[in-house]
Amino acid sequence: MHSFRAGLIGKGIQASLTPAMHIAEGRVHGLDYSYELLDLDRLDDTDLAHIIADAESRGFGGLNVTHPCKQDVIRHLDSLSPEAEALHAVNTIVLRDGKRHGHNTDWWGFAESFRRGLPDADLSSVVQLGAGGAGAGTAYAILRSGARGLTVFDRDETRAESLADTMGRYFPDAVVRAGKDLEQAMAQASGLIHATPMGMAKYPGLPLPEEFLRPSHWVAEIVYFPLNTALLIAAHRRGCRTLNGGGMAVFQAVKAFELFTGIKPDADRMLCHFAELTKADSLQAERAAS
After folding, report:
1. I need a surface site. Which of 22, 117, 134, 186 has the fewest CB within 10 A?
2. Nearest alpha carbon to residue 244 among 203, 187, 288
3. One fold for both 2-105+250-289 and 107-246?
4. 19: helix, coil or strand?
5. Burial 114-124 (b: 16+ CB within 10 A, else e)
6. How many Cβ atoms from other residues are within 10 Å of residue 44's Cβ?
7. How many CB atoms are closer than 10 A to CB 127?
8. What PANTHER family does UniProt report for this protein, alphabetically (predicted)?
9. Which residues are catalytic?
10. Pick the CATH number of 2-105+250-289 from 3.50.30.10, 3.40.50.10860, 3.30.200.20, 3.40.50.150
11. What whole-number distance in Å separates Cα of residue 49 and Cα of residue 267?
12. Residue 2, Cβ neighbours under 10 Å: how many?
């Protein structure tokens, strides 16, 4: 049996389901697949250069990257895919032949999840919260999906402006801007993308006042642990159509697995496995929505 070794670099990642998805799919394809959590909250040495070098020395073939490293990691890589370069964010590193190749599978993961979960969503005026590494991916994805207007908010206004400027260059036919007044933007919005860590077990809470949500809004979340975030609970309460972060988690893993191994995984099988892993959380979400 051929062996393959991968890992995830990030902060507060002990609840991640990415390892289980990769390992299960690897076994189906006859791989002795191991996947290690490289949690910055638990490592003595949190220097990204040292973490990547250590992974290489131990024979890792790939690394996933999550909050807060998706942008900082770029300076340690040898090459970037066109999407990673456009987004200035990397969530997948292929380690091959002594080289480090950076990719971004977040954007496709979100786009595919959105296509399946909210197929007829109004994309005339989208508000996005978060302009970090994940936010770059979701912004790119929603604009590739046909959004005509995108307003980006971030606690760091400079970061929001930078992302808006970048996306505006890649999508000149869309109106992309950094937002100043969230309440006003939500009053004019057709939908909301949440692309910050808020709502994760480690960062509980709502990313915006609940009263900003209207029944006409759709709400798309990137957080998947828990699936039923405070934002989605509030959105259900307000009558919004919603999309949890599970689909993005699965589909980014689908692409990452293929990049790591060169083997095309079965996306539907990985979705089913994810559903099994999150069954208790899904039942809780259904009860909250009913």
Report:
1. 117
2. 288
3. yes
4. helix
5. beebbeebebe
6. 4
7. 24
8. BIFUNCTIONAL 3-DEHYDROQUINATE DEHYDRATASE_SHIKIMATE DEHYDROGENASE, CHLOROPLASTIC (PTHR21089:SF1), SHIKIMATE DEHYDROGENASE (PTHR21089)
9. 70
10. 3.40.50.10860
11. 32
12. 10
Q: The tokens 């808006």 sit on which residue?
A: 164
Would you state the structure tokens that stand for residue 146, as one six-digit string?
């046909």
The residue to which tokens 């991916």 are assigned: 137
Give the integer Cα–Cα distance in Å for 255 and 246.
15
Q: How many CB atoms lie within 10 A of CB 259?
A: 18
Domain positions in the chain are 2-105+250-289, 107-246
- Give me the CATH topology for the region 107-246: Rossmann fold (3.40.50)
Is residue 86 exposed (0-12), middle (13-18) or buried (19+ Cβ within 10 Å)?
A: middle
In one-letter notation, the amino acid at residue 150 is: L
